[in-house]
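C-alpha cells for Acetyltransferase. Go.
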Amino acid sequence: MTADFTISDLRNTPQFFDTVADRIWQAWWKRHGVPDAYIVERLRENMQGTDLPIALVAHRGPDFLGTASLLVSDLDERPQYTPWVAAVWTEPDARKQGIAPALIERACLEAFSRGHARVYLCAAPPRRAWYESIGWTPIEDGVGALKLTVFVRERPEAV
C-alpha cells in the first residue's frame, strides 16, 4: 500500500500541537491523575531546538492521523538507555493503514541520523508480538510497576 499521508516534525506543523497533547494525555496520563497542563509543558520542549525531544505527526493534509515521539528517556527504571520511541498513537479510524509503523520507523531514522546506534521502546506485554513483527527485539520483561517489555532496535550497518 502506498502511503497517502505525510509525517512531519511538530515544530513544522504547530497546528497539531493541541491535538497531540490531548491524545498523549488521554492515552497515558489522565488515568493516573496527571494534569493535562503537565503534558502541554512537556510537549512544548519538543518545539524548541533541533535535537531531542522530537514529536512527529502523521497527517493527511489538515487531518491528524497519529503521533510518535523520540525522547531522551521514557522509563525511569532504565536511565542508561537512550533514546526512546514513545507516545505512539494512531487515531482509531486511521488504524491498520501503516501509520504507526511509519511513525516508529521515522522516529528510529531520526535517532540514527543523530548518531545513536540503538533506539529503545517499552510496551505492555500484549503489544509484544506486534513490536516484534515490525523488527523490535525484546531485551527485558516485567520492568517497573506496569511490568513493561523493553525493546531495542539496532541501527542498520548501512546507515
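The first helix runs from residue 17 to 29.
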